[in-house]
Amino acid sequence: VELRDASGVWGQGTRETERLIKRELDDDEHISVACIGTAGEALLPGASVKADRNHGAGKGSPGAIMGSKLLKAVAVRGTGKVPLAKPEALVNTAVEWENNILLKDPKSVVIPPPSMALKDGGISRGYGDFIGKSFRVAGKNMTDPVWGHGFATRFVEACERWTIVPKPSYNCKIGCAYDVHISDGQFAGMVVSTCGGGEQHEGAAAMIGVTEADAGLILVDLYDDIGVEAGHFGSIISMAFEAYNKGYLTKDDTDGLDLTWGNWQAAMDLIDKMIKHEGFGAKLAIGLKEAPALLGREKGLVDEFTRLPVHVKGGGINIHDWRPAWSIVFGFMMAGTGPSHQGWGVDRVPEPQLGYSSPMPGVVDTQEEALRKVDAVRLTQFAKLFYDSLGICMFVGVGVKDSMRLSSRALAQAVGWDDFTAHEGLLCGERVTNLMRLVYARRGFKKSDEFDASYRYLEPAPAGPSKGKTIAPYLHAMVDEYYRQMGWDVETGLPLPETLQRLDITEEFA
What we know:
Structural class: mainly alpha
Number of domains: 3
Distance between the termini: 35 Å
Number of strands: 7
Radius of gyration: 23 Å
Largest sheet: 4 strands, antiparallel
Helix content: 40-55%
């Protein structure tokens, strides 16, 4: 292990940083690089850590943390093998699991797992059907889901003309990551690396109303290169765009930038100002909650600006418009790391292995129906946090037949335990959920903090299944029910002593 001078890569984007470090170490094949871009160096909110070109971690702005420590990158070379207690048995389990990833569970009603929709860059083919038709594309700062459907459709139509090359992670049979070779228009010849379910397209482009698919991809590429998480950073930009389009801001406020919906060139200029902490960009760079609060005070429009940002507890969401899926809306609010996919419920994908063979209606009409979502959110949260603890992708777990049983068995076979059941795996997830809550307690958490979600996040959508409907009236009852099911104090939201004892969480952690 050695510490090296980063002056040769400081100021570079994530892709060039990776290339230069691999060249310096003279080993392109065996070196893996995790690094920050200029956003992390500038300590911007939403700054991410990027690894191996198009993969990244952005929740909680870890790139800004690395930047604050003047740490540009970590490069590793692996030369050894991981010892396995029962390699043949583990391979057999992996084969069964792998087959299930691309198989609809016969116990499930109708809905296949997301892994099938994402296979081989599947979002480039199914974005309009998978996300757009259900009014879940976050268009124009989540003000226009109908426009969002058109955004997704245009992207798929453009991808039909271009070349899509799947770029799966090591040994991944899903391959949601892909390269887009743009072959026509103003960006002909460009290659953009992207992955996942379309969130980055929405955070970088749909949220500010970009109509051209190629320009949207260029923004996605820019976000990855400077190293920012699209849901958080993009929501800051889109808040400013909406304020401009509503007349709350003028060119006098934006340093002359025309933030009309769709003006991607102005967005790129604004991002540059944020990185340099210049003028209007410096005001946005203070944060997703803080920037609209500052602008509202300056313009005498505090209430108006308060209604614009999309956030939960000050963090950006995994950016789709989730208002048609209340379990996911609620799950983001209860996640232990700020808004993220921990407890997704079963509004979109059934989970027969957790007792839910049919999906729930995403939007409901009564408190009783809303409360039924709580148990599914809680159980899927336990499952997801167990998957996270294993270091596996959520898409080999969500909706995948027997994924809890197989992941638990694989763990036992890898380390040499006689047995490790799905129930024990869920218990691990429950422990992690409680440990996160104890960290909350040390940081001064109050129950009122649970409801720190923005107006836009909770307001009724203007179209689609959630038109005229909101989860907001049911939230307090849902939170109380979640606390009861978790074994937490309903008044404080903190784990009860008997819960910690049952989970064998020791006194020093508590």
